[in-house]
Each structure stands twice: as C-alpha cells, then as structure tokens.
Amino acid sequence: MRTMTQSFAHSTLDALLSDLVSAALDGRAPTREQALALLASPDEDVLDVVAAAGRVRRTYFGNRVKLNYLVNMKSGLCPEDCFYCSQRLGSEAEILKYSWIKTGEAAELAAKAVGAGAKRVCLVASGRGPSDRDVERVADTVAAIKDGTPDVEVCVCLGLLKDGQAARLAAAGADAYSHNLNTAEEKYADICTTHTFADRVSTLQDATAAGLSPCSGAIFGMGESDEDVVSVAFALRDLDPDSVPVNFLIPFEGTPLGGRWDLTPARCLRILALFRFVFPDVEVRLAGGREIHLRTQQPLALHLANAIFLGDYLTSEGAPGADDLAMIADAGFSVEGRQETTLPTARAEQVALRRRGAGTQVAANT
Q1: DSSP 98
Q2: Residue 28 assigned ligand-binding role
Q3: Burial of 88 by CB count in 10 Å (0-12 exposed, 13-18 middle, 19+ buried)?
C-alpha cells in the first residue's frame, strides 16, 4: 500500500508524464524542469516512464525497428585523446589496429549486413578527420556499396571535416554524416582536450549544409550529472538531427574511464525516455553499451528507441545478430524493411527538401 507521500509523488509523476506525452505529440520540446524531473523519477516508477514515452514512439514509428550496421574501415592509432575511446592517443586497450580496409572488403561486409536485415550501413574510420585522399577512398566505397544495393542508406563517420569534404561525400552518394556531441558543452573538457565541443558542432553543421542527413548523439555513463544529460539533449535538438544514437559507456580497461560503472538499467531507460520526448519524430537509436548496461531490460528499451545497431561495434563485440532478431520478434516488434520510410511523413518531406536545397546550392557554387 502506498503512503500518502508516495501517492502524492506518483500523482505528480503521472501529471508530468501526461504533459510530456501531450507536448511530444504536438511537436513541442519538454522544458528543462520537466526533463530534470523525469530523470529524477524513482526506479520503482520506471515502467510508467517507459509506457508514457512508448506512446510517443508508437505514434510516430509504430512497431518497426530499424537495423543499422557498423563497418570499421580504419581502427586505432587515433591522435585524439577522447577519454572514453579505446582508439585514443595513449590507449592501452587491447584492440585490433589496422589501416584502411579495401573498398571491396567494405562493400562485401555491407552486403552481408543488408542480407541480415540492415537498412543503414555506417562507414567509420578512426582519426581526427580525413585527408582529401581519405575522402576519395570513402567516396569509392560508398559508390561500390550503392552499386550492389542501391536502396541501402550509407552513413559516413570520419571525424572533423574540412571545407568541401562534406559536399564531396554527398556527391558520391552518401546519405548521412554521423558526428556525436557526446556530452554537454560544459563537461566537454573533462572528456577530451584535443578538440572542442564547438569543433563537433561545426562539422555537423557543415554536413547538414551539404545535404547530408545529420546523425548525432551522446554517450552516457561518463560521470555526467542530470543537468549535463539535459544540456546535451537540448544542444542536439538545436542542431535538428534526423537520427540520434544513444550510447552507454563501454569502460575499456586501458582508458581513463576504464573503471566507470555508473549506470543501471533503470537509469538507461530514463535517459532513453527523455530522448524520445525531446526527439519525438526522429530516429532514436539504441547504440553502444546497451548489452552491458541494459542487460535483461533491452526489450523494454525497444519501446523507446526505434533503431538499434546489429552485430559488433567499432572495437567491441555486440550481441549475436540472431539473438537481436529474436529479441525484436519476442518483444512484439518487426524489422523495418528497406522500402519503408523510417521518419514520419512530415519529417521525411522536410529532410528531402533540405537535401534538394543543398544540392541546388552546391551546383550553383560550382
């Protein structure tokens, strides 16, 4: 039986969740106070939080789950010092290190992923940012993938871009560019000293201006406060990404954050719920670290996120693909087909207009 205080607190949460759902369905962002209250809600009420955010997810995305697949084109030996990363400068993590894989190998990996149900292939390379020669190499890989599977989405993640590089990737047929903000601007210097939060924002803006669909998210479990979680969520909303990966820290031994195990499944679910309320009609993707932090609660996370990564991550193993497909089916969801449009109609039309406008501007400048 609930005490009077507990009943009052529960009714307050009910009112908060009702307001958040109404705002999301009207396309309005939560207030900062609402976002902080959601993150501070007690663990015993997490199912109520999931149910409320799940209403928003079902309204915009039904029961579909989009599958994404990572192709690690270049691993390790990065000159940046991002404290969370196993590929960072000075990392002692035991990972594979290799230079660029061949175009044919990348295309073959992409084809296998598509055969397993992946709708988007993400081409990722370690480093501060690509040289122009690197961009040409990736452009050739994009073309090879598109030649074999024209309707697959190709997202590129190469770090900080220089002038003209985003336009070259768009011209090669890339659909999206991924560059995470990772944490709040106020906390950024605590997780990296070799580049800034502003550098990341600038690259994402350049990619968007070139007509690439912006993909940007964050990593949680790095010692951030509730204020930090809300700040990075709102900073991302200001950038208006089409897809938002939510990562949970994989604490690699041999990195500065190797000993951090701050997250619980309930904490992860509340963060995912917040991102669904902040991004009601945007692809929210369950990304790195889900297996070790959500554990047996991963099926609940599908009621919040409408996309996941299938298979392994950049330098760590994910769940076997067959297990993920079984989890999706057992939870009552279905894999989104390549012919289905991920984003709701109004949002998808906005994206198409933006890309056509960018293409027209690039043509006028050449």
Answers
A1: B
A2: no
A3: buried
57, 78, 168, 268: the active-site residue: 78
Q: What digits encode the pLDDT tens for the residues 19-36?
A: 999 999 999 999 999 999
Q: What is the pLDDT of residues 191-207, one digit of tens each?
A: 999 999 999 999 999 99
Which of 112, 105, 109, 111 minimizes the C-alpha distance to 137?
105
pTM of the model: 0.93
**What is the distance between the alpha carbons of residues 286 and 121, in angstroms, rounded to a whole number?**
15
Q: Which of 64, 88, 120, 155 is catalytic?
A: 155
Q: What count of other Cβ atoms lies within 10 Å of the Cβ of residue 320?
A: 12
Rounded distance, CA 285 to CA 280, Å? Answer: 12
Active-site residue, selected from the candidate residues 285, 290, 347, 354: 285
Q: Is 192 flagged in the annotation as binding?
A: no
Q: According to the annotation, is 78 in a ligand binding site?
A: yes
Q: Flag whether 37 is in a domain.
A: no
User: How many structural domains are present in the chain?
Assistant: 1
CA angle 58, 17, 333 (to 5 degrees): 20
Q: Yes or no: say if 226 and 36 are a contact pair by the CB < 8 Å rule.
A: yes
Picking from 9, 15, 18, 16, the residue whose alpha carbon sits closest to that of residue 55 is: 18
285 counts as catalytic: yes
Is residue 321 included in any domain, yes or no?
yes
Residues of the chain where predicted confidence (pLDDT) is lower than 50:
1, 4-5, 7-8, 316
Altogether, the residues listed in the chain come to a count of 366
Q: Which listed residue (57, 64, 85, 192) is catalytic?
A: 85
Residue 155 annotated as catalytic = yes
In-domain check, residue 308: yes
CATH code: domain of residue 263? 3.20.20.70
- List the Cα angle 38/39/44 in 5-degree steps: 85
The answer to whether 268 is a known catalytic residue is: no
Q: Which of 120, 122, 200, 268 is catalytic?
A: 122
Please confirm, yes or no, whether 192 is among the known catalytic residues: no
Range of the domain at 89: 58-365
* Residue 285 annotated in ligand binding: yes
Answer yes or no: is 9 within a domain: no
